[in-house]
Every structure is written in structure tokens, then in C-alpha cells.
Amino acid sequence: xxxxxxxxxxxxxxxxxxxxxxxxxxxxxxxxxxxxxxxxxxxxxxxxxxxxxxxxxxxxxxxxxxxxxxxxxxxxxxxxxxxxxxxxxxxxxxxxxxxxxxxxxxxxxxxxxxxxxxxxxxxxxxxxxxxxxxxxxxxxxxxxxxxxxxxxxxxxxxxxxxxxxxxxxxxxxxxxxxxxxxxxxxxxxxxxxxxxxxxxxxxxxxxxxxxxxxxxxxxxxxxxxxxxxxxxxxxxxxxxxxxxxxxxxxxxxxxxxxxxxxxxxxxxxxxxxxxxxxxxxxxxxxxxxxxxxxxxxxxxxxxxxxxxxxxxxxxxxxxxxxxxxxxxxxxxxxxxxxxxxxxxxxxxxxxxxxxxxxxxxxxxxxxxxxxxxxxxxxxxxxxxxxxxxxxxxxxxxxxxx
Length: 401
Description:
Radius of gyration: 23 Å
Low-confidence stretches: 233-251
Number of helices: 17
């Protein structure tokens, strides 16, 4: 069973009909692929492997991991900045509410505080790995919610009109009005302003997956809605109570921006490294130096030379210390790469990725692996190649080097 099937199977056990739950927090303004991915990562980091570990929104907010990364990734003010408290409450709380509605988390209200535990660790971890996986989850989740709620037929009509070149502005306006009426009639939300913040988050996820027009600023887009446009609008945060010591001019200086990008890149790399550390208890490369505890995550193509692929899990491999410091980097010199061992790492990684894909976990992407190889070896191989063909070409390529 692949991850999409696992997501569908998980969701199939629950009735997510809004007409029955009367819960409008199945989706919200801050529930975007990048924000949800980050919050899922923060939850994973907080609970570790203990799914019984309770947490609150405030626990995630106060965690060092959240504080260390949220400013760099999203350009936010410090979590300790009181003037941004209402925004942080939404930034963390809304994604958590969506995960709770999807039954990825479970919640219990005690007094005025909601306490959460992880109900499906595997899917939560999948969501936390990268934004593309979060997007896949959100699509499956929203289709399930809208199907259970009887609203999917209006989305289907919208799609059919577009496919048959009959989609009009009036039809889009009608879909929007129906959504407003549906939310007002089945949830405590009574004002269209709040509903109009939710509607784009719902429609645009589906539109991006199905290659349909979406909505921006309340209007129908002229073209299909693109995945990259789903991400959280970081500009909004630059107007939220900037630290008094940081003027807008200073914040926009190239050095400040480059510094933020560097920290963001480091976060993405570390997130990928953490995943590989957890996924493999032993070395991924089974040779005579693989005995013992595997503690090192090695960049097959060095991150200093190939920063574009530094955060790709397809470019990372778990090794023992001896493999890493004796074979991958001869004599422990981190500036040196043994090309023969690099080839062995790539072949071993390709075997692991193929096995992973065949098992259906979908944590890896064949396209991403080919991109890593093309970047590192300056080749132009196509993802349509079989893994056997890729391995044959790798051996031939390294024989030429």
C-alpha cells in the first residue's frame, strides 16, 4: 500500500461531514503546504517517537525548535514578541486544528485548553518531510471532507465547465456563493469575510492538483493555479510589529536577506538529515565497513559544491563512521571525495529508493534521484529510465571519470 492509499485508508475510517461536525476549522487561512509541513515537523520534533506525548499550541510555540526556525523560514518576528502573539496563535493553531479534523491528531479539551496527541504518526511524518508531500495530503484530505459533506459535486461542476471550455465568471461567483452559504448554514461562522479567507485555501489546492483555474483576491485566475502559488504569503508578516531594533530598510538589506536564506537552507538540510537518521537504523551501504552503529548521514554530492541538492533526501545516505571518514572521505579529509565510493553510494541509494517505491511508501521520488544524479554528474538522463539502466549508466560514467 503506497502513501496515497494509506492516507485514503486512514481518512476512510472517519466521517468528516461538516454538516454533522459543524466544525469550520477543517481548513483555514494559514493552512498552506509550507506552513503545515513546518508545523508537522515541529510536532514530530516535540513528541520524538512517543505518540502518547501530549502537547498544546503553546508547547509548540515555546519549543526551541520552533523558535530557532520560524524566523528564518518565514521571516517572522521572534515568537517571544508579544505584539505578534495573535498571529502566532493562528500560525500554529490553524494547521493543528486541520490535522485534528483529519484525525492525524487527537484532541481533548480540558478547561479552555486543547491537548493533542498523535493518532497517525506515519502520515504526520510523511507530511513533515517536504511541502510536496503536504500538498498531496491536503488534496486527498479536502476531497474527502468535501465528498463527505456533499459539496464535491459543485467542485466537479466547476471542473467540468473548465474542461469543456464553458467556465464563466458567473459560474465561479456561483461556486463561491454556494461555499459561503454552505459554511454559514453548517458552522458557527456567520460573516462572509472569514469564509472568503477559507475558500481560496480549499479551491486552490484542488485546482493546483487538477490543473484548473483558482482564485486570487476574490477573483478567478486567468490561467491554471500553480503549486508554487499555494505557499504562505510571507509579505504579510513583514508588516506585523517588526522588532524596534529592526527597521524595514535594515530588514530588506541584501546581507540580511542572504543571511535568512542561508539559515533557511540549513534548516531544510537538517530536516532531511533527521529523516534519514530516523529511517535507517543501520548503514544503507552493506559492505565490509558497514558493521557497527551507523551514525553518519553523508551527502553523496557534497553540499558545499552542490547546494541546490543539499536538502534532497535522495542525495543523503546513512553510513557508519568508518565508511564515512575512511572510505567516502579518505583519511577523514572532508574536502576529498572517493569517486569509486561515491559510485557505490549512488548504486546503493538507487537500490534503496527502488525498494522504497516498490513498497509504496513514496518517501522518495525517482524524478528527484535522477535530478540529483544529473546535477552531480552533469548528465541529462530522463526519469523514464529503469533503475537497472540508471545503475548501468552510473558504472559506465564513473569508469570515464
